[in-house]
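Issue 218. Parser rejects a valid record. Input:
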Amino acid sequence: VATAREYYREQTRVTFSGMTKEWPAAEISVILSRWINEVERGIERAMIIGYHVGDNSTGSSGLTPTYFSYNITKWERTGNRNEEGHALVLPLEMEVKRTPLFLEGPARMMKTATKEKLRKIYNNVKESDLRDEELKMYKISASLKGQSY
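Output the parser choked on:
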């Protein structure tokens, strides 16, 4: 995503005019509703893929993962090389890797949650690997043992 964003910025840096255009509020409302729905669907998918209390895969725990990593499982060589001489490839398939929980994900989710959802998130974090019961404190992340650098 960051690479695509940087590419877009570079491509529009000189040609972007900065001119503004008025749009009817009804049109903007429809566009914003679509964006909100897309973000909500993404959160639902993330919660199903990510770690959960008891490690269930239903997405019902209320904890959203903060990070994912991706492993390219199938690719095609482009015939080009980068500045260091490494072959460039076009990714065709990838698998999502789950990462341990980080407190940042649920904390950000709490910023926009209803009071009812806040309590659920709080209780789920309290029951997760983010809580150190012996110290009665929360950790920034669950154990990172076995994670790549």
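Fixed in the parser; the record now loads. Helices lie at 2-12, 25-49, 104-110, 115-126.
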